[in-house]
Amino acid sequence: MKMDATSSFLKERPVVAMFSDNRSTESSAELAIEARGLVKRFDGFTAVDGVDLAVPRGSIFGILGPNGAGKTTTLRMLLGIIDPDEGYRRVLGHERPTEIARRIGYLPEERGLYPSMKAYEAIAFLAALRGVPLKEGRKRGRELLEENGLGYAADRQIRQLSKGMAQQVQLLGTLVHQPELVVFDEPFSGLDALNQGKLERVIRDLAARGTTVIFSTHVIAHAERMCDSIAIIAGGKVPFAGPVDAARDRLRPQVRLETRDLDGPWRAVFPADARLEGKFWHFTLPETGVEPLLRALIEGDAGILSLSIERPGLHDAFVAIAGEAAARALEENAGEENAGQEEMR
Amino acid sequence: MLLPDAMTERLRAAWVIARRDFVAVVFSKSFIFFLLGPLFPLVIGFVAGSIGATVQRDLDRPVVGVALPAHEGDRLVMARDAMADKLGGLPEFVVLDRLRADERFDARAVLRNGRIAAVVGGSLAAPILTGTRERVGELRGPLSLLAARAQAGGAETYPPVKVDLLATSAARERDGRVLTAQAGQVLLFLLTMLLAGMVLSNLVEEKANKIIEVLAASIPMDALFLGKLFAMLGVSLAGIAVWGTGYGVLVLAGAKSMPVLAAPAVGWPLFLTLGFLYFAMAYLLLGSIFLAIGGMANTVREVQTLSMPATMMQLVVFFLASFALARPGSWIETVSTVFPVSSPYTMLAHAARDTALWPHLVALIWQGLCVVLMIRFGARLFRRTVMKSGPARGRKAKKAITAPA
């Protein structure tokens, strides 16, 4: 219900456009993250170039882009790990994110725990960093491990755990202090299908409880499946930020038509991009809609054998928004990761 | 006085880091070896010194053979026993032969074979001492006294000698304090370098473990910086406590071969207190520099390369302070006192030689100020460099991911 409200809020006020207006205090209060014109340069290289973001509270927000696009740098700026060279950010209503670190959870892409720490102590340490007393953190650490079927490993050192188990321990440590905002940087990276499914459930559960979740990914399927809103980032810029549906709506639906005759006067209603592949016509649904098309086909006795109208996927939207090159880079990243996982297996 | 919330949060965060680092280092196996490291030479030195001293004592206990006519030899031995406590260090005398009037004794033959160090021949009235030059030189005087007493039948009385002991002379005291100052400087230098190196490798390890990003996202970077610095300060205290205790135990156990330094001018308690304060200042200054360097490095090799200038600087500073020690009142000493990194060394040496306390107060304030500035600068640099992202830098990579206009 909350997600619906969020979606409608964003539909009414497109995210990027929202910043051109005078923002009201009310809209700020509804946002977990606001960022405007974030710029970060490293030794003359502009890693992030004028990023605008608005993440509604309680939503699942994805930052989608190929490796090197500026996702991690953007997240680090939002978390206060690094400061932007230009621009403005407000996280949970605060301009200095490190001052409200207790309300935030962060799982970086490159996971890291002290190898000599015991699993429950690692969780307690991460909790202590976020302001939970050590004793309480230890108690919660044991409880969380028990609840997640890792109770038997509570007293094992991190170095004695498998990679997957260590990742789970770190995830529990990220959530141990019950943050209002959780930031995951490439959370699915390096996880097998089973653990990816588990993590998806965790993220959905968090959002269902009202926690805002923001994650970066280069896998379009994850963003499409889980996110209420996304930001597409490429070359340090954000050409699109808004609901997933709004991204898809950038493209017209695609028509796939099979007729008895391949040509006829009814073809006049086809748009200019219509192309024949085998027995099938492919083209973008004209802006006039499906009814004039159907009428022309029936009246022209085209002999419709099959007709499908498909809404474009996020991948098509990504290609349209970020360009072929960025999409290719994204696919290459995903391919490399899959190959890496195969190798690990 | 209540601290502002931000300050309290920073201190809390620094405490979390310091506690973790301290526990991790102190309870690691490598720390046991780190602690035991300096104790090994001490223990070995003590044991070797004791054994050596015993062996030396045994080897150096000479026996003087006596070959005098009739019972003259026995009288000489009695005289030796009677005078042993007064003369001190007298060798044992053993009667080898009681010679008849016409009998001769081959002292050289005895000395060639046995464990006899020298042989007394002739008579009590005209004793002949046979032995090496060293032994003869050593025994000639005492033998004369003993022969005289043996001849006289032990009638002489010796007046008791009162003593007026002087602990040390001014020159000896001055030399001793310079030695104490040097020892203090060396200890300070070694500890500082050791700990600064440890904090650096600790940081590099965290960067390698990828923990640093979690830390940087959770707490203010200066709290992380402070926590790491103070954790190692705590580690150093643990080390100093163990080493100090070990040294003290060995000294109390009567290890005569252990060097016992001359008391410093300000007295031991104050000298040790100042030593700790100056160590803290020197360590915090160097640790800040090393941590700032560590923020820029990603691998041990990078650390070695980047920290080389800082290590060299520390060596130069140490030599400057040592040089200044030999030139009190010179401009070199002034420079060494004012330059923040060398100031702790120079002032510790000052505490060993001079009783004035106000210069220490001024120096500590000055060094404290420099520490604050250095930590702030180091933390800022650390923050700027430690989480520098690694973007795709090549033209090809950039072209590939650039969004269309």
Looking at how many chains there are and whether they match, the oligomeric state comes to: heterodimer
Radius of gyration of chain B: 34 Å
Alpha-carbon Rg of chain A, integer: 24 Å
| Count of alpha/pi helices of chain B | 14
Structural class of chain B: alpha/beta
Query: Which regions of chain B contain 5 or more consecutive residues with pLDDT less than 50?
Result: 389-405
Uncertain segments of chain A are: 1-26
| Major sheet attributes of chain B | 4 strands, mixed
Summarize the helices and strands and which ones pair or pack.
The complex is a heterodimer of chains A (345) and B (405).
Chain A: H1 2-12, H2 15-18, H3 25-29, E1 31-42, E2 45-56, E3 60-64, H4 71-79, E4 86-91, E5 104-107, H5 119-129, H6 134-147, H7 163-175, E6 181-185, H8 193-208, E7 212-217, H9 220-226, E8 229-234, E9 237-243, H10 244-248, E10 254-259, E11 275-277, E12 280-284, H11 290-299, E13 304-310, H12 314-322, H13 324-344
Parallel strand pairs in A: 3-7, 3-8, 5-6, 6-7
Antiparallel strand pairs in A: 1-2, 1-4, 8-9, 10-12, 10-13, 11-12
Chain B: H1 5-26, H2 29-60, E1 63-69, H3 72-87, E2 92-99, H4 107-113, E3 116-122, E4 127-131, H5 133-152, H6 170-209, H7 212-218, H8 221-252, H9 268-296, H10 300-325, H11 331-338, H12 343-353, H13 358-386, H14 395-401
Parallel strand pairs in B: 1-2, 1-3
Antiparallel strand pairs in B: 3-4
Report on the structure:
- The complex is a heterodimer of chains A (345) and B (405).
- Chain A is of the alpha/beta class.
- Chain A folds into two domains: 2-248, Rossmann fold; 254-310.
- Chain A contains 13 helices and 13 strands.
- Chain A is elongated and about 80 Å long.
- The model of chain A is unreliable at 1-26 (pLDDT under 50).
- Chain B is of the alpha/beta class and 405 residues long.
- Chain B folds into two domains: 62-152, D-Maltodextrin-Binding Protein, domain 2; 171-386, no CATH class.
- Helices cover 71% and strands 7% of the residues of chain B.
- Chain B has helices at 5-26, 29-60, 72-87, 107-113, 133-152, 170-209, 212-218, 221-252, 268-296, 300-325, 331-338, 343-353, 358-386, 395-401; strands at residues 63-69, 92-99, 116-122, 127-131.
- A four-stranded mixed beta sheet of chain B has the order 2-1-3-4, sandwiched between helices.
- The longest helix of chain B is centred in the middle third of the chain and has 40 residues, at 170-209.
- The model of chain B is unreliable at 389-405 (pLDDT under 50).
